[in-house]
Amino acid sequence: MSQHSTEAILLRAWPFHESDLMISLFTREAGKLRGVAKAALKSRKRFGGALEPMTCLRAHYTQLPRQEIVRFESFEPVVSPLAEPVDYLRAAALALYAETLEAVLPEHDPHDAIFRLTPAVLSETQVGRCWLPVTYFSFWITRLSGWLPDISRCTVCAERLSEGGFFHAAWDGLTCGIHRREGSGALAPESLVQAVRMLREPVDALGDAWPGERGRDLRRFLWRTLERHAERPLRAAEVLIQLGG
Ligand SMILES: [Zn+2]
Fold first, then answer.
1. CA of 183 relative to ligand 1 center, distance in Å
2. Average pLDDT, whole number, for the chain?
């Protein structure tokens, strides 16, 4: 039995047994962990105020011998997403982050680059300026998971994609017009330019609020890629599409 304390981001909490909760956390030291928080619904002292998805917190937990799941002892909230105003769009953006991390991260496998990406994107995700951080998160989570080949070139012939490219739900990366597959979507040259900027710049250096239509094709491409690798639909992505993205 070993005791641990780590920075973490809460992904999901659901009723488990009586007042216990099962919780999925993305921790800095051990990656994604699932565990039981005993009497979490009763004990506001040990877990109070830190049970909303995408809360950044410090988690104290016990790793039990030969057990996949851990025992969460207590959480100390560091930053709550509810400290800032919330509207439908911001709520859907936060839900997308939690759902995507839950879907793509393997358990017990630390990923420091994704861990550092998440709070940077969270602090930019505010009412009236969600589309840029949502796109940036979707881009980098796809890339850091290893599912985004060089997007400046066709994956078939390696021709430079100066006129934009085409993406298909069944394949990683982009193709040129000649190697476009039946049923592909188009990625406009402007969206490719934005994607290349995302490769080079931190999210807070990329400028002002984006309108919903900017990067819409890029998000479709990234979400299709994420959904195929995660082998499940991203429900929050569907909500974001309905909200104009
Ligand atoms: Zn080609």
1. 16
2. 94
